[in-house]
């Protein structure tokens, strides 16, 4: 089967740094994406890693290790508005994407 | 900037009825995806289209069908609706430019089956 594992919940304080991990087991792998979704809203694209290494976009960074089937999303200088669900997603080939169950991030003042 | 448009935003149907959801991708995006998301769940991939041809299928029931038209808009047709079909249905489009797979999601259609 295909699976993506990520923590169900993470809590952090404003201004802190938080890392959300994702491990995957899929029949194919073309890249790892991260999406943010606020309650009642649509998923919003954050980052994409096709190759090993770190991608940085503002306060968000994403890392991929293909040999370990592992990636993470790093959020720096946390703000209250970052409270949301974060999904890792794998493109398994063609135009098929499998999402993880999501990590709910709570940012406290 | 133009975004993905979905209609209707809300739909209420009774069991065994049919429903049609529409999606208008961002202009010049050549790939369309459909997802189903239940409460507190992750988006489940249903089906995708590339350049108006069906590309991949996921966990899409046989009661559902989809197509993409010459103007690139897509429709998801759902028949013999069941209570379990109640969910948020998202359409997403992707430009494939640069070889990335970033997907831009529409606001979703909330389907309630009673």
What is the number of E strands of chain A?
Answer: 11
- Terminal Cα separation of chain A, in Å? 40 Å
**Overall mean pLDDT score of chain A?**
95
- The helix content of chain B, as a percent range, equals under 10%
- Number of DSSP helical runs of chain B: 0
Class by SSE composition of chain A: mainly beta
Shape of chain B: globular
Helix-strand sequence of chain A: EEEEEEEEEEE
**Sheet/helix structural class of chain B:** mainly beta
What is the tally of helical segments of chain A?
0
Strand count, sense and barrel status of the largest sheet of chain A are: 6 strands, mixed
Strand share of the residues of chain B?
A: over 45%
Low-confidence stretches of chain A: none
Average pLDDT confidence of chain B is: 93
Shape of chain A: globular
Low-pLDDT residue spans of chain B:
none
Spatial separation of the terminal alpha carbons of chain B: 37 Å
Write a brief caption for the model.
The complex is a heterodimer of chains A (109) and B (114). Chain A has 109 residues and is mainly beta. Chain A has no helices and eleven strands.
Can you tell me about this structure?
- The complex is a heterodimer of chains A (109) and B (114).
- By secondary structure, chain A is mainly beta.
- Chain A is built from no helices and eleven strands.
- Chain A has strands at 3-5, 9-13, 18-25, 31-37, 44-49, 53-57, 60-65, 70-75, 84-93, 96-99, 103-108.
- The model of chain A has no long low-confidence stretch (mean pLDDT 95).
- In chain A, strands 2, 4, 5, 9, 10 and 11 form a six-stranded mixed sheet that branches. A five-stranded antiparallel sheet of chain A has the order 1-3-8-7-6, with no helix packed on it.
- Chain B is an all-beta fold.
- In chain B, the strands form two sheets. In chain B, strands 2, 4, 5, 6, 9, 10 and 11 form a seven-stranded mixed sheet that branches. A four-stranded antiparallel sheet of chain B has the order 1-3-8-7, with no helix packed on it.
- In chain B, a hairpin with a 2-residue loop joins strand 5 and strand 6.
- At the A-B interface, strand 5, strand 9 and strand 10 of A face strand 5, strand 9 and strand 10 of B.
